[in-house]
Amino acid sequence: PIVAQVTLNDDGNTQLGETPENVVKHLSELGVDVIGANCSIGPKIMFDSLQRMAGVTDKYLSAQPNAGMPKMVEDRFIYLSSPEYMEEYAKRFAEIGPLTVISSSRGSVS
Length: 110
Hints:
The protein is 33% helix and 22% strand. It is of the alpha/beta class. The longest helix is centred in the C-terminal third of the chain and has 14 residues, at 83-96.
């Protein structure tokens, strides 16, 4: 199987301005089996974008959000999302539809 993921901006679109729906369309035309997003944003924006993807495809989806965006605190970058917050969204991702990957990216482990 071919898995393809994109990174998303705070507006839920790619850096080139592609919407989640267009991402699904283009990757489906290329024969991708699993479509998703990883890194760069926290779970809330990724959840919203994957819901939009699920609305236009029956393909499997994948989600690998960061624990939010890091903040500089006393000369250190800190991710402010709690384990409970990440857990809440992991459960919500599972309710979207056929997900094959629910994972996490930077800032999600100590």
